[in-house]
Amino acid sequence: xxxxxxTKPNQRSRTAKRLDRxxxxxxxxxxxxxxxxxxxxxxxxSLAIGDPDNPTxxxxxxxxxxxxxxxxxxxxxxxxxxxxxxxxxxxxxxxxFGVKLDPEKEVLALIGSKEGIAHSFLAFVNxxxxxxxxxxxxxxxxxxxxxxxxxxxxxxxxxKNCYLPSFEKIDKNIISxxxxxYLNYPSNPTTAxxxxxxxxxxxxxxxxxxxxxxxxxxxxxxxxxxxxAPSILQVKDAKDIAIEFNSLSKPxxxxxxxxxxxxxxxxMIKALGTIKNNVDSGVFTAIQVAGIEALKKGDNVVSxxxxxYIRRRDRLVKVLNEIGWKLKAPKATFYVWAxxxxxxxxxxxxxxxxxxxxxxxxxxxGYGKSGEGYFRISITAPDERIEEAVKRLHKLDLxxxxxxxxx
Length: 407
Ligand SMILES: *Cc1c(COP(=O)(O)O)cnc(C)c1O
Fold this sequence. Notes:
By secondary structure, this protein is an alpha/beta fold. It has two domains: 140 residues, Aspartate Aminotransferase, domain 1; 240 residues, 3-Layer(aba) Sandwich (Aspartate Aminotransferase, domain 2). 43% of the residues lie in helices and 14% in strands. The chain contains 15 helices and twelve strands. The strands form three sheets. Strands 2-8-7-6-5-3-4 form a seven-stranded mixed sheet, with helices on both faces. A three-stranded antiparallel sheet has the order 9-12-11. α7 links the parallel β3 and β4. α5 packs parallel to α11 and α6 packs parallel to α7. The radius of gyration is 22 Å and the shape is globular. The structure holds pyridoxal-5'-phosphate. Pyridoxal-5'-phosphate binds next to α6.
């Protein structure tokens, strides 16, 4: 016994094995470099993270303050969300997508959609199940699957296919072991959009192979040039097999508040709710009250933000194209996704931009193997910072790197 106690601490790791399976954080190197530059007093223009630079609108903050002063909000919230919040989500979905939801059974409040996405794997898959995930894609799909003991299987997204997965190319063996399909359009990081026809194809593929779908619609409201993003629940009978994640973070500049929701299939909503009931006990009621205000009265905020993003997007795309890129203006999200010039990979080009011009972008490979060869610029920085980046990009004289490419 004594001996065991002695040897135990050395033999056994203090942390769980599942942490070892989390892929290395690909921005670590870049973060270190950025920290070093900042320390040296370099004025780093940070365009790596997608987090709206504008504040949450006052009418939302004021509603929150009012709710905060009401002691009835100080208790444990109903874990699945307040009925008022779930009704507001239902009304928003009906108004925005023409989708009818039962607020009691088909809506679940989340502590940001990331929380729901991460927990979805605990609710929906067993150890060893395969989860089909977009590559490149939001990293939580991968890591969430791994943490639940499931196996993420990357579906490569290529520019030539408009960044839509080719379901027919997935190995039959893989499909037979797959349980869950994750999709995200408008897409982070590729900025690609999917029409209702693709969502119909996805639902029929899933039904044919007995899969369930989680559709991440975090950018449904951040769309431009007349493009309107659909909900997967607009597909007939999608509710049989699908839930959709959405969030107040991106449209209403509320990333710090942590408020999102899942909607759709009753059984899936209930299962995710059971996990939440046992883990986090739900979203602070006063934040849900603020969220209701945003969902009901936030349309003007969204259009105002969109015109800001359009201005920045156009400025950046124009300048990149003057240098030598051949980019089309993205129809959605607040990112620009672009190939790296010849002679670089994602990481070396991101390092080059940081070292030579103090501009921080996200290397595409950080979102999966198929993101290699691309980088992502976020336009959630003030106009002056975008202008500063533009000035520095011009100075770099990257055009020579594009001239070699001409055939
Ligand atoms: C930002 C983002 C989310 C999560 O946002 P929350 O703030 O957690 O609601 C989910 N999916 C994608 C693709 C995102 O970019």
